[in-house]
Amino acid sequence: MIPILIVDTDAGRRATYEELLRRSFSIGYAADTAEALNLFRNLRPPLLIVHAGIEGGSGVALCHLLRQEEQGRKAKILLLGEDFDESILGRDMAAQLGADDLAGLPLDPMRLRRKLRDLITELAGKAEKATPEAPAQKVSQPVEITNETQQASSSGNAEAPAFCRDLSPAERAAAGEDRLALIGRLFENLEKLDYYALLGIPRGAAASEARRAYFAFARELHPDRFALYQSQTLRQAVARVFKRLNEAYQTLSDPEKSKEYQIVLERGESLRLIRKERGVEGPKAQDTQITNPQARKFYNLAMTALRDGKVSAAKMNLALAEKLAPGHPAIKSALEDLAARGQG
Questions:
Q1: Residue ranges covered by each domain of the chain
Q2: Which end of the chain has a smaller Cβ tally under 10 Å, C or N?
Q3: pTM > 0.85
């Protein structure tokens, strides 16, 4: 029988899984993200069903965390969600969410069987193609830190950052020593670095350079990457660092704010630009231009997800909005801004 881990707390769906799958699968259940990670690392099932709204965190975040592990990259994941419209969403969107395929709810037994059958076929095909010498794994490159940032953030102390001490070996390996060191350097020096030094670009750099640097950091340090880690100290450090990186980007990419910030720096008043913004209560600034009501709804959901730091959910809703209002400038701009975020 094929081992399958089902991460879903709904009792009604669990009864459906038992009825549909027990004759062909050896089923294990997890009620939340922590239990799911523990079972996956111990049982190493090749197939998973994950509900997007599981307890203890987002099912999407769980998928991305699993993909950071070697066995997780080999497994096949079917992601379930109430808002998944399979007539619009396909496997490209599933890949962005860290899964192999998507299925909407309520469950359709025939569709569920077909999707699982397809994933099993893909697993079998992958096993047949495997060679004794596996190809080298692609490793994401760490963000390059400039000399200015290195000098400013160097503390002369080789001791690991405090937030590393309560990381499990699996989480530490998934995060990577270079990434943890980068978080430590930035976190310890947040109040010593101006926005340019924080992003690792020269003073007076163009907005395009700030954008490029920010999205490079976003690939490595977005809070979504660490959402399911057990270390609260690490999660808090990442959130604070990324909030300041975003603050730097928002300032240096805006011509008016950038000019104001230059004056603040020249006067030696502060390393930050702090001012009250108007009209930030809600995602309605651009959405009034979106005439399609469904597209506008998904756009608003995406903006809300962004404010909550849920980049994967924002991507999904923006993709839905773009399908309903192709080429709309507000949606297109938001998709471009998200292109480099939340990568697993």
A1: 2-129, 147-267, 284-338
A2: N
A3: no
